[in-house]
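Reading a protein record of the kind used here takes only a little practice. To see the layout at work, look at the sequence and tokens printed below.
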Amino acid sequence: MDCIVSSSTVLIRSHLTPIRSASSVSAKPLSSAQVASFAANRHILSFKSDLKRIRTLSTNASSSTIRCGGIKEIGESEFTSTVLESDRPVLVNFVATWCGPCKLVYPATEALSQEYGDRLTIVKIDHDANPNLIAEYKVYGLPHFILFKDGKEVAGSRREGAITKAKLKEYIDGLLTSISVA
């Protein structure tokens, strides 16, 4: 059985088969035990489909920030150590929770973060929570990408707006080639 969990309901469907019923999908409130269990295990995402179980741990032991794969959300206090003092190129993705294009680009960014591995670090910075960085780097549109190498912004590396995974990969490959990291 697959469960879709929110803070107030659990929707249950069998093997992700579409429900073909005239009635609406039934939902029931979570019990206090389910809420406690979910809260204690929220760092584990589990999905079951076609009798296969995929389990992904998404925590970073050194920080209370939840990591999803290879992308870490940082703030102004971590910017210098994570971006400017990094020994490898860092692609900074400025995003906002209310930004639709940011949400569209995120899966592609996540996949490419894993694909590039040790050649490139990708971080995201919340636009609303980091106004000083937004002003310093003159970020006017979202999502906004800037590549940093050796503590400096790579010339011509700015990219603004939604982008497909293929175009994002092409953009990153071009930047890495131009700074001799490919």
Remarks:
- The two ends are 44 Å apart (CA to CA).
- The CA atoms of residues 84 and 151 lie 4 Å apart.
- Confidence is low (pLDDT under 50) at residues 1-27, 41-68.
- The beta strands are 2-5, 10-13, 44-49, 52-57, 71-74, 90-95, 121-126, 144-149, 152-153, 159-160.
